Every structure is written in C-alpha cells, then in structure tokens.
Amino acid sequence: MRTDVVVVAVLAAAIWMSPAAAIAAAPRADVAALQVALRAAGAYAGTVDGIRGAATRAALRAFQRRAGLVADGIAGPRTRRALGRRGRHPYGSRPMTAGDVGWDVSALQFKLAVHGFPSGGFDGVLGPRSVRALHRFQRWAGLPGDAIAGRATLRALRARPPGSPVRLLAPLPVAIGDRFGPRGARFHAGTDFPAAAGTPVTSAGFGHVAFAGTSSSGWGRLVILRHRFGLRTLYAHLSRIDVRPGAFVPAGARLGSVGATGAATGPHLHFEVLLRGANVDPLTALGRR
C-alpha cells in the first residue's frame, strides 16, 4: 500500500469516525474546522455545528470533484491543501496568536464558543474578537491571559464545558425556540422563548438587578440579574422593563414584557445564563436537557 494512502487513512479516522467508534451526533472541533474551510471555499452553506452529517459529506465530495481530487469524502492531506489557508495547521500543531489563520484557529473558535466564550463568526481567523474571547477564557480558567493558545490553553479546553450550579425557573411558561449552540456560521449563546409581545417575563431566581435599560449591543431593552455562585441571567429584546438597577427581586418576580427591541426579527425573549462570565447552556439550569 502506498505511503500517502496510509497517511490519508490515518488522518481520516480522526475526522470521520465510524458509528461504532463514536456517536455520530457528537460535535467535533475538527469537523467544525472542515465546515469553516468548505464555507470559505463556497462549497458549504450549512451550520458550522461540528456534526458529521449528510450535508457536510456532500459538500466535501462536491469540493473534491471541483478541485480535481478523488471524491471519497475524506478530508485527507490533498484535500486540506486544496482548501488553502483554512485547511492548514492541524489543531495543536502550533501556538496560535493574533492574526493566525488556519484549521486550528477554526477548531479553537468552536471550542471557545462551546465553553462559553463565542467570538462572532467561525471564520478561521484569530482576529480581535477571537483574541478577546481567548483572553477571557484564559482568565476564567485561571491561566495567564496572554491571548496565546498554547499547550495549557488547549489542555484547559479539553475539560467538559461548564453548566449551571443551581436550578432556575423558566422565565416564560412556553415552548423553547432556538437553543444554545451553533447557528449558521455563528454561535447562539442563549435560549429563545417565542411569545406574543407583552407576555410577562419573570425572574429565573432571586437576585439583584445589575442592569436595566437599553443596550447598545443589539439586545434592545435588557435586564441582567446577579445571583449567587457567580451566576448572572440576561433577559433581552423586552418591550418594557418593570425593575430598576440595584433592586432586589425574588424568584418569579415580573421583570418586564416580551418584545422585539434591538436586533430581533420578531417578538421573543432571548435568555442567557452566565457563570463567572462564561455563557452556559440555560437548559442545564432549567433541567430540560
């Protein structure tokens, strides 16, 4: 067997594991990096979710045919070379610093987002927003905040993403819409509750009002509560606010009403849970996972 065929087979096993070797639905940073590279090449328009699904496999084969390669659906060395800058530099092969571009940067962006530090779009470029997210994660993990993704940072990112240490109440008694996780080429850092405008929004737990007003970052009318254990909850796109900064509120107290203020396409509540500054899946607090 030719040496390059052996190398391709070994690398493919790291990305395209069989169902017997891994749960197909489990997100993988390497798969997310492949999706980013295919997006940059104009071959993939789906969500950067790290899932080895039919759309990703079809996009990979289509790209391979377009590049004059064997359309085997394996992201081996030749395919990654053809993908250009975003196909280079396997994750962990170098320390990543500001301005770097590559496969490893895409994987890093995905891992940071899953751990609660999203940095805008997944694009494989360690730009200013990604650098800030990296610095914040390092400080959160007790590492020097040098914004260099070296061995210690990559080791910290192997840990399980954090969850809420306490149980909270749902801020609305309605079905959940968009959940915490990838959405398009970005990461949705909260959970959406679709409801009619004017529906009362209530506190998920007792705490103090850290912010109540209009946000400049697209949240529209916004309330942020500070709770115990370094926990905060965020309630965005409100049509009105019924609390003042500094006030103490019990669990279940009315905070405001559902709206579509800020960068919202329709009436809903965008709800986030943060643990010491890291976004965590709100469903870990609501017991709905």
List keywords for this structure.
289 residues, disordered N terminus, Muramoyl-pentapeptide Carboxypeptidase, domain 1, alpha+beta, Glucose Permease (Domain IIA), two-stranded antiparallel sheet, 9-stranded antiparallel β-sheet, 3 domains, 11 strands, 19% strand, single chain
Account of the 3D structure:
With 289 residues, the chain is α+β, with helices and mostly antiparallel strands. Helix content is 27%, strand content 19%. It contains eight helices and eleven strands. The longest helix is centred in the first third of the chain and has 13 residues, at 3-15. The radius of gyration is 21 Å and the shape is globular. It starts with a helix and ends with a helix. Residues 1-24 have low confidence and may be disordered.
Q: What would you say about this model in short?
A:
This protein has 289 residues and is α+β, with helices and mostly antiparallel strands. It is built from 8 helices and 11 strands.
Q: Helix and strand succession? A: HHHHHHHEEEEEEEEEEEH
Largest sheet: 9 strands, antiparallel
Parts with pLDDT < 50 across at least 5 consecutive residues? 1-24
CATH superfamily of the largest domain: Glucose Permease (Domain IIA)
Mind sketching the topology for me?
Elements: H1 3-15, H2 29-40, H3 54-66, H4 77-82, H5 103-114, H6 128-140, H7 151-156, E1 181-183, E2 186-188, E3 191-194, E4 200-202, E5 207-214, E6 221-226, E7 231-241, E8 248-249, E9 254-258, E10 268-275, E11 278-280, H8 283-286
Antiparallel strand pairs: 1-2, 3-10, 4-9, 5-6, 5-8, 6-7, 7-9, 7-10, 10-11
Helix pairs in contact: 2-5
